């Protein structure tokens, strides 16, 4: 399945899309000088993909906190919590798949790096069952993965660099897709930048940065001048999630804006000349005090309150009005749509080799695109329904499979698909699946694991394996009193 978003248009006005599913596997690097439109690009990417995937934003300037109200992101103020609380928040974010913005603008550089490192490392170290797909967007990445030592201690630099390296090099298998933005490629650690397969290069002027950008885009050095001529908000894009050849992109409009950003010019003060001089040089006691309203104190939640908020947060894209009681026809239609989606996923090559969390994310996206508001299927239920679909059982309501599913309730989730496949073959009198077929269904390349799997199911009393003198194997299901047709093992 392809879940694409439009980030802008090319020179001909043709929409330029980013394939989010491909981006999750291949990561993204954004580069451009200050004022080139990097934050605008990231904001467009976040807004358009908010309904498709969990998002975690490392925000050193507090620019992206405005995503909270329209899109349901939880804002975590990094300056309000200690290291243990940040780690606990990150773990809870992974568990509940909450989209969050980690605002670090209240911290100095060294504290920002420490906080981001603890946060990213906790996301990275989540248990295998919580490896849900997520976009991890890091703005001003050169701060967290510097190419050379700077004003911070070596300990902090190593800690932050290691966390960023884990994100970009090893995060994909854990569902974490790094999206990093930097003002200068020369200031970003090469081993971090090199792991991105997608690039959006904005305006830059220094020769060393243009040369590195040209190398990443596969352009000749003499073509690098084009990067210097890019207008604000224009980028050159390349990568499997964007385009196979460099394409110019004008980033489209966004719905939200950063806080306290002045757009354009402002009128100058009316006082000038001697009037301004008197204002500046007058004695403080002689000046008329200017009464300004007291700013409202910032509301900082306690760690326990924020944890509860993360647990109860539902992203804006998933918030729906309570549905009216559906008719029987509507219930049957929804069940039929869900069964069709599961069958479509089960028919895709190598689907069983993917993590259950990643498949569940894919399933929820497909349901959302089919306008199915509430399937009533959580991750645990999805594991069993997907195993049924792989085995060829479309729905639990089919009475033909009632006894098979009753027996399957004793089978662990990870063994369910092979067992159901054997039970279906026995019920329909089909040949016993061979080791290669069972290995594909189980999601392994090892024939030895299949032999151990069959041995475990037989010792559990769920199946009986029989091999005749001709070397042909058949599998029986004792509780059903049925057996598969024999086939060469």
Automatic annotation (TrEMBL):
DNA-binding in keyword set: no
Residues annotated as domain Helicase HerA central: 7-77
UniProt keywords, alphabetically: ATP-binding, Nucleotide-binding
Claim: Zinc is one of the keywords in the record: no
Pfam families given in the database record: DUF87
GO MF entries: ATP binding
This protein's name: ATP-binding protein
Organism: Novosphingobium cyanobacteriorum
